[in-house]
Amino acid sequence: MSSAAAYISSVSRLFKAKTLSRGLVNELLSSKDWKEFMSVLKERGFVSEVPDSITVAELMLKKRALSLLEQLRDLSVSVKLAKDIVSAYVYRVTLDELTYLTSIVWNKLQGDVNLLTTLRSHIDQMPASMEELQSMLKGTIYGDALSFASSKSPKDLSQLNSLLEYYYIHFLSNIVEGLKGDWKAAANNILCGYKDYYSLSLAARQKISMDVRCNVSEDDIRDMANSRSQEDVINVLRRTVYSKSIDFTNMYTALTSLYRLAINRARTGAVSIFMGSPFNPVVAMGAAELIKLDTEDVIRMINGLKLRVPLDRLKQSLSFELL
Predict the structure, then answer these.
(1) What is the CATH number of domain 1-79+281-317?
(2) What Pfam family is a match for this entry (predicted)?
């Protein structure tokens, strides 16, 4: 295992080298507009060309993230733990394809399989029912996610798709619970904030109580699921360990604050994981998390520049801690 783990560590470090630095982020934020921003990314080798629209830019960035994650996953086949971890990240960045399919099937609409990329190999024609979709995806992480979500008896499409998003953290949490010692601690340094955010957010928005958590209690999640007003939601968040860092203007700003804490801590944890033992296969999670966070941050930045969001406010939305 040690030689395989060392190999995964080495491969993961190569992918970390392809991620954003604080210096590059500050340079990007100094761009006068989103096209200059994309020109900087092109110069740094993040994209091959400067697109004509932000829509195309977002698509390019998401494809880049997916390509990197798929390469990392394929290079991790010798260590099942690392491969499963990276597979969860591939699932997360391609979740929009699965929710597109569930939305089409749930609403009995006419869909187009040509809009699919990753799931195109499993879907040769648009399914007519959720059962048919489940059958097509059997044996994949997407099929497992759909089974998980369906088992919770969602009452509407919003609940179903929220559960599909939740499956990402549910899947990773199950993997981490099976780890021990430094490996488990390193993984939880990345996932801890996500566990609390996803469970509290699902409870607040969909009134569904789940058991994945880190620094919040079962009572917090249960009370959140039973909340009947924005004030109830805010009161639950006020009693958590995160309260000093949350903006309580309203429920939505509070949950957004909680998410920002989660991504800040995830980035710190992902970077820190590379400073530990070189024989830790969980470094694959660090590389995958940085790829995901980079993509989300870059998309926030280009949209922020287009909308002329004040620089201080834009910085506060990122996973980087910037002065």
Answers:
(1) 1.10.132
(2) vATP-synt_AC39
